[in-house]
Amino acid sequence: MVITMEPAMQPAYLDGLNEMQKKAVIHTEGPSIVVAGAGSGKTKVLTARIAHLLKEKKATADQILALTFTNKAAGEMRHRITDIVGNEAKAIWLGTFHSVFMKLLRREASSLGYPSHFSVYDTDDSKSLIKQITKALELDDKVYKPGVVLGRISHAKNRLITPEAYAADPTYQKEDSYMRMPRFSEIFLRYARHCVQAGAMDFDDLLVQTYKLLNDHPALSTKYQEQFRYLLIDEFQDTNLVQYRIAKKLAAHHQNICVVGDDAQSIYAFRGADIHNILHFAHDYPNHQMIKLEQNYRSTGHIVDVANRIISHNETQLKKKVWTANPLGEPVQVFRAMSDMEESRLVVDKMVAEKLTAQLRYRDFAILYRTNNQSRNFEEALRKKNIPYRIIGGLSFYQRKEVKDLLAYLRFVVNHNDTEAFRRIINFPKRGIGPTTIEKIFSTAAEKACPLWSVLHHPNDFLSGAAATAVSRFVTLIDTATLKLANENAYTIAAYMAKASGLLKELHEDKTVEGLTRYEHIQELLNSIKQFVDDPENNDPSLGSFLQEIALLTSADKNDPNEDAVTLMTIHASKGLEFKYVYLVGMEEELFPSAMMLGSKADLEEERRLFYVAVTRAQRKLTLSHALSRYRFGKLTNVQPSRFLKEMGGYTTTKTTAKTFLSAAQPIQKHRAKPSSSVRPLSKPTSVHQPATDLTALQVGHSVAHHHFGIGKVLKLVETEGMRKAIILFHKFGEKTLLLNYAKLEILSST
Fold it and tell me: How far is it, in rounded angstroms, from Cα 136 to Cα 133?
């Protein structure tokens, strides 16, 4: 049934919406899933739906909970809603999962044993803590690599596995032994214990502790279930187990949960995203309403057609047929180069020609690639042409050392239990407190079983001479700043600390180019704090409030969309963005699809969804490229075109365009194979089969190990179209179907 409204009765926020979009806006009661194809205007729909709740359903702003995955998406939605309903939009619980739940946890932290101004550990903080723990346990940090350990901790948390449950499970212990980390559970336990003692949460804790709050405290759970009358979730295909569990908890009372997403754009399984959340929503809510947004407003007809062809090869999906009323536009082009270096030169030459012909700006162009290391050749080619470019996903402003140093001082002023902040600042700038003294401080706190800050206030009890004096001066510095918390704003305290700590003096005296740049970064941080304090819409200019605001910022939040520069980025980073002209490069087997994703049907389908995302970033023109040879591990290696090129259909360049294009290339070296033509029918993909590991002996019931999925049990063996497959239940990743010609399995036992 299509819901329509008479034009005279129709609110302004419904103007310009098609019939299915209007249906998604107006159908507000009960569970609903909006399957939003690429470029189908879902942000407009979400914005109008919230406006409808406020104006027509008479919901109050604090009864609406809207969750997104990026600050950019949340900011755009709030801006649009404010244009419709005014200042009422400020009171909506709208933001990323992490920011909204951090706000909730600040209110209820005491119920979990945390201070209201708990610290938020970023990745560097967490890795630093893990290094301290592995050192204390006398473990080899080349085996227990901080990044790997943190990844395993994160994976466990996002599956709601506590350190205690992990340590008690023999299956996990067996898997850790197989991964050569038999003492991982000890690190996990100490890591969790330290975070509580330090009054700190990492990013995963912001979700896990929210779930714990709702699950273990019925009164608080009821409070928020009754408050949030309407729950909306954007990019639902990207949710993980704990995010969905929280959402189900919060929606349990009113049942007005609306999820918006596109299973065809589920590309974050490596971060814990579970595509089954969107695929199984109908099962979890049998009385749901499903609405499909299938009209694409972004791309030309040719691009939409290619996208549909690609995704049709995936078996696991919610069926839809995306279409567009836009013109067909230019055909999608595919070209090949002799090498990866030649590929980058050809792409840049073509870009220059198209910019002049179509009278475009550099910011209209994007180069997308599968892996970060592919950017180097394109950076060099752009620099040779003096073309400005920016790389998305580089170092965030808030991750720069000097910025993190000052922020660590501010964090410690707010939370004296933040030991990672303490380690960073206690002797920087140098104040005569060396490693021996620092370890003495920690060992004394451990022996006396008292907080670090209490020990620091009595340095003469365990230190002598210059070390005791230096510690006493440090305590005075922090105490002075702490006294300002009650009456001074964030900028006043930050400016004081930057000067009193010696940070500004240290950087100002470094007259190198790098030193001056670091000094400017500190000044820019102070500027950002001043802007925060002076913002007329900011009701809380305190230091704690500022630290909360910047705790979850990413590099993408600092990018200027109006900068006239070519954008270089991975396909993963491009999700949610759009560009007039897109170059999708490196379309080769074992690069895209990645060699790491050829072992199972589920992984290959995720790679195909990633390809779909890349294609649908393009508005007017899409060009794909691949090379015949590429440097890998220092050797020039022959490579095969990606299987995805055949799947997308017979799209190619015209002969004239291709010949003109190739004329810009440098002479081809004699030792390289001579191409028959730069334009050709898309070739049949070549699969590179890897040798099996005694897989002829594989049987149902066998316990096996996989390099990525860990340990699992064989449930079923099947053969289709000449390919042997194994259906395996992995302890951590659930059921996977693996192609045995590709999978590298080790048979552990027959039980």
Answer: 5
Residues making up the chain, counted from first to last: 751
Catalytic residue among 125, 205, 235, 603: 235
Known active-site residue 43: yes
Judge whether 619 counts as a catalytic residue: no
132 as an active site residue: the answer is no
Distance of CA 34 to the CA centre of its chain: 22
CB atoms within 10 A of CB 714: 20
Active-site pick, 23, 42, 440, 630: 42
Q: Are 579 and 366 in contact (CB under 8 A)?
A: yes
70 is catalytic: no
Tell me if residue 234 is catalytic.
Answer: yes
Predicted confidence band at 183 (pLDDT cuts at 50, 70, 90)?
very high
E strand or H helix at 200:
strand 200-202
Please check whether residue 569 is in contact with residue 584, taking contact to mean a CB–CB distance below 8 angstroms.
Answer: no
Reading the block at residue 622, the tokens are 């899409």
pLDDT exceeding 70 applies to what percent of the chain? 90
What stretch of H or E contains 420? helix 419-425
pLDDT bucket at 479, cuts 50 / 70 / 90:
very high
- 3-state secondary structure at position 201: strand
Choosing from 204, 234, 263, 506, which is the catalytic residue?
A: 234
- 6-20, 92-106, 491-505: least confident range: 6-20
pTM value surpassing 0.70:
yes
Catalytic residue among 345, 609, 617, 620: 617
Q: Which residue has the tokens 């790679």?
A: 607
Catalytic site residue from 237, 239, 265, 623: 265
Going by C-beta distance under 8 Å and a sequence separation of 6 or more, which residues neighbour residue 706? 599, 712, 728, 730, 738, 743, 744, 745, 746
For residue 723, give both structure tokens.
């390919």
Average pLDDT over residues 102-108: 94
Q: What are phi and psi of 87, to 5 degrees?
A: -65, -15
The rounded distance, in Å, linking the Cα atoms of 568 and 249 is 40
Active-site residue, selected from the candidate residues 43, 82, 225, 640: 43
Q: How is residue 151 written in tokens?
A: 């990844």
Q: DSSP character for 690?
A: P
Chain segment 710-740, per-residue pLDDT in tens: 788 898 888 765 678 888 888 777 778 887 7
CA distance linking residue 342 with residue 602, whole number of Å: 34
What per-residue confidence (pLDDT) applies to 534?
A: 87
% of the chain with per-residue pLDDT over 90: 60
Q: Are 71 and 96 in contact (CB under 8 A)?
A: yes
Pull the structure tokens for residue 582: 């897109």
The answer to whether residues 608 and 311 touch, using CB atoms and an 8 Å cutoff, is yes
**Amino acid (1-letter code) at residue 168:** A
For 555-575, write each residue's pLDDT tens digit. Answer: 445 556 678 999 999 999 999
Residue reference for tokens 């109050």: 60
Q: What angle do CA 160, 165, 166 make, to 5 degrees?
A: 85
